[in-house]
């Protein structure tokens, strides 16, 4: 028996060694291949342990284009703005990170086979509801509801709170009511936070202690199912709730499966925006100059554009939230996204083609995967001097036209690009902007215990796929005199 085990072990070692040696010698043509010792697994372990550091080391050694083997997938990684834009604009490289993969990560299984199709049945009304022209129907009530939910902080001289729920909970509840109506469950935020904390490991397939996350998901889903059961045409189901119910009904989606789709949509709706909002305030709390400058801009705009807080609540529409009077705040939000939005989705080639990269062409075979290394672009010292620092006014001198992000001339892919731009690109910016205006104008927020910790750059072990989760930070919130 021992001899058999020893023989198998030797065979595995010989096979792995020969595979590594052959992979290190073959295919020296463009783009270069990153050698790996393990067959099929390839560089998966190194990548998952710290994806951004691993890709950075490969970029340094092999250049802006290279090939990887990740769990049986042959992946071409590109790190130039031209090549990344070409991937986003291509109709040949289709997204591999699909709704079903997010569904599986959130729910724990694949979607059940129905006639329901996200692109056909949901994307059209999301395009309409989340278009910049229509977002006044979201931003005005969002400002009003959030203002009502944070007024209790203004009734006490000083309040000690955890920064994350203080910022995220009012936004979470208000947006759900606007989009899904006042019957949508209002006490699921804590469970949503538990579920969201497990998502990096769920998405990457890492082992994790899953019981608290599963229990949280079960509690949320139970309340969403109650919402579905009570939905009818006469109820106020918000801007998109009724449209979701109609899509489920027309495609014979059972109630439980419909609840799973709504829960998956909830994660996509809230998680990344909450992360950007939290990191924006962490950066501002650690940079007194930035905080003072942006607060001064907000106070000035509150007076010059809106007159007072009541004017803001009445006219918090996209046109008034854009423009040069909020240039610093917009810049700080874009800069926060540059630093923290680390999503690098895979796309798979549907046929052989050549991917354009400036004056070069990258040969891509059908079935190969493409990854845009957004982190490398956002960390390029030529485009972004002091690239690991939060420079609040980095984009303030860009074009501040209404409805246009001030990123022209700089490579910026935090919300996607081309054919694969984020459906909620405007919504996410305006959510963060409305929240920041309210909190900065109404309150002084300071970390408890003196000078804040060095939150950024993150230590390597904190690197994750997506937006890194911030630490819990206790702060004191004090009303600012004469602003309520």
List the helices and strands and how they pair.
Blueprint: H1 2-25, H2 44-49, H3 51-62, E1 65-70, E2 73-78, H4 81-89, E3 93-95, H5 99-107, H6 118-121, H7 123-129, H8 136-154, E4 159-162, H9 163-180, H10 189-204, H11 211-229, H12 241-250, H13 255-285, H14 288-306, H15 309-315, H16 318-321, H17 327-340, E5 346-349, E6 353-357, E7 360-364, E8 369-372, H18 374-378, H19 425-442, E9 443-447, E10 474-479
Parallel strand pairs: 2-8
Antiparallel strand pairs: 1-2, 3-5, 4-10, 5-8, 6-7, 9-10
What does this structure look like?
This protein is an alpha+beta fold. It has one domain: Cytochrome p450 (Orthogonal Bundle), CATH 1.10.630.10. 52% of the residues lie in helices and 10% in strands. The strands form 3 sheets. It has a 5-stranded mixed beta sheet with strand order 1-2-8-5-3, sandwiched between helices. The protein has a 3-stranded antiparallel beta sheet with strand order 4-10-9. It has a two-stranded antiparallel ribbon with strand order 6-7. A hairpin with a 2-residue loop joins β1 (65-70) and β2. The termini are far apart. Mean pLDDT is 88; it is low at 2-27.
């Amino acid at each position: 028996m021992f001899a058999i085990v020893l023989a198998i072990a030797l065979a595995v070692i010989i096979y792995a060694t020969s595979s590594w040696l052959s992979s290190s010698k073959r295919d020296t043509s463009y783009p270069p291949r990153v050698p790996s010792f393990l067959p099929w697994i390839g560089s998966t372990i190194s990548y998952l342990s710290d994806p951004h550091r691993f890709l950075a080391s490969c970029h340094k050694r092999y250049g802006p284009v290279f090939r990887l083997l990740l769990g049986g997938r042959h992946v071409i990684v590109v790190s130039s703005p031209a090549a990344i834009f070409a991937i986003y604009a291509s109709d040949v490289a289709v997204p591999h990170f699909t709704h079903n993969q997010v569904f599986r990560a959130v729910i724990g299984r694949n979607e059940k086979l129905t006639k329901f199709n996200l692109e056909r049945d949901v994307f059209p009304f999301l395009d309409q509801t989340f278009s910049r022209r229509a977002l006044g129907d979201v931003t005005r009530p969002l400002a009003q509801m959030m203002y009502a939910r944070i007024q209790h902080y203004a009734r006490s001289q000083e309040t000690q709170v955890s920064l994350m729920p203080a910022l995220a909970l009012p936004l979470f509840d208000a947006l759900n009511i606007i989009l899904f109506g006042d019957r949508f469950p209002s006490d699921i935020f804590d469970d949503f936070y538990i579920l969201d904390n497990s998502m990096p490991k769920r998405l990457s397939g890492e082992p994790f202690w899953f019981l608290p996350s599963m229990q949280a998901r079960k509690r949320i889903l139970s309340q969403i199912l109650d919402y579905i059961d009570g939905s009818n045409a006469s109820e106020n189901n918000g801007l998109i709730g009724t449209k979701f119910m109609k899509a489920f009904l027309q495609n014979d989606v059972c109630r439980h499966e419909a609840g799973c789709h709504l829960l998956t949509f909830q994660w996509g709706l809230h998680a990344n925006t909450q992360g950007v909002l939290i990191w924006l305030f962490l950066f501002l709390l650690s940079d007194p100059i930035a905080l003072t400058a942006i607060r001064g801009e907000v106070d000035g705009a509150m007076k010059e554009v809106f007159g007072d807080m009541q004017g803001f609540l009445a006219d918090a529409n996209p046109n008034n939230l854009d423009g040069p009077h909020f240039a610093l705040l917009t810049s700080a939000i874009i800069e926060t996204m540059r630093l923290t939005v680390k999503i690098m989705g895979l796309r798979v080639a549907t046929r052989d083609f050549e991917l354009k990269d400036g004056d070069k062409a990258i040969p891509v075979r059908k079935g190969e995967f493409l990854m845009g290394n957004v982190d490398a672009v956002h960390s390029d010292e030529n485009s972004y001097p002091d690239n690991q620092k939060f420079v609040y006014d980095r984009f303030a001198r860009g074009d501040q036209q209404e409805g246009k992000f001030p990123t022209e001339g700089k490579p910026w892919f935090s919300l996607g690009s081309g054919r694969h731009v984020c459906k909620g690109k405007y919504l996410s910016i305006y959510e963060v902007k409305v929240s920041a205006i309210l909190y900065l104008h109404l309150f002084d927020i300071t970390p408890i215990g003196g000078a804040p910790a060095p939150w950024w750059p993150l230590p390597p072990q904190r690197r994750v796929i997506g937006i890194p989760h911030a630490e819990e930070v206790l702060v004191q919130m004090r009303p600012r005199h004469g602003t309520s």
